[in-house]
Fold this protein.
Amino acid sequence: MRICIVTLAIGNQDYFDYCIPSILQYAKRSGCDFKYISERSEKGFLVHFEKWQIANVLDSYEFVLFLDADVYVKIESPNFQDLLIKRNCVYGVLDSRNKKKIGDGGWGDNDLPILYKKFGKVKVEHKDYINSGMFIIHRDYKDVFLQLKELERDHRENFRDYKDFGEQTSLNYLLRKNSIPVFPLDIRWNDIWSHNPKSFVFHFGGCWGRNGRMWWNQDKISKIKGLFPHVKKDKSWRKYPLRMIV
């Protein structure tokens, strides 16, 4: 079974060199290949939607584990391949388990119904909504990412600067549209908010603070070092870019 662990690292964010080395080492320990999406597929394409390039990876692998570039994987984390008991689903941590509101445009409970009204009615419940900073998907669902590419192209102005919705809500929409069931994982596989010492995958994603502003790069690095003081900058992961196939 060929498996690739993929992250999205376009640009030169400082936290890349603190988080992505842990993903690379986890891939090696798990017996998986590692690639990072390093280039925009076309000028103006919104960065987070470049996850569509997972479709290219699935041409060569049976499964992809996707992890955001602001994820730190603990060295003693178990092998995720033990989770793969079936292939006809997407594995992910439900956003509701992270005790935050559903959505990524305004982090509001109305994101999904409004999106579905615009793009086509799809039966969905909030309990099915995964955080797209970590998920596992089989090559049978490659077309979901090609559809994500077309969705961005068709609605770019609505997505720009989160004026409407971002990639996470859009990906969840496409999972529902294609009737792909969600296999919910324990929150330890994508711990965004609590950062419990018992978790495996620590996600330093954007978080709304009391002043309505988000954590930015330097704040992410300080939080990483606060939890993992031994971590140092490491650029070794940069040897594994994904070759562009548009």
Observations:
- Strands lie at 3-8, 33-37, 63-67, 71-73, 90-94, 130-138, 182-184, 201-203.
- Confidence is low (pLDDT under 50) at residues 99-110, 207-215.
- The chain has seven helices and eight strands.
